[in-house]
Design a protein that fits this description.
It is a single chain. This protein has 60 residues and is of the alpha+beta class. 30% of the residues lie in helices and 33% in strands. The chain has 2 helices and 2 strands, in the order E-H-H-E. The protein is elongated.
Length: 60
């Protein structure tokens, strides 16, 4: 058997609702909000594969 490192490329999206005085504060609040565990499922469900995976044989 051989060993391989496989790099998979994905992008995703997540929509959060925040209260803020302006767009800059809204972005700041959204970045803080999206780190919460309740958004993990939304982030994972939104995954879409990008490009082709990279496969490299690992030398021992």
């Amino acid at each position: 058997m051989k060993k391989f490192e496989v790099t998979l490329y994905y992008h995703t999206n997540c929509t959060v609702t925040v209260e803020a005085e302006d767009e800059d504060e809204a972005l700041e609040n959204a970045y803080a909000e999206v780190c919460k565990e309740e958004y993990t499922r939304q982030i994972l469900d939104g995954l879409q594969e990008d490009d082709s995976p990279d496969v490299t044989e690992v030398e021992e």
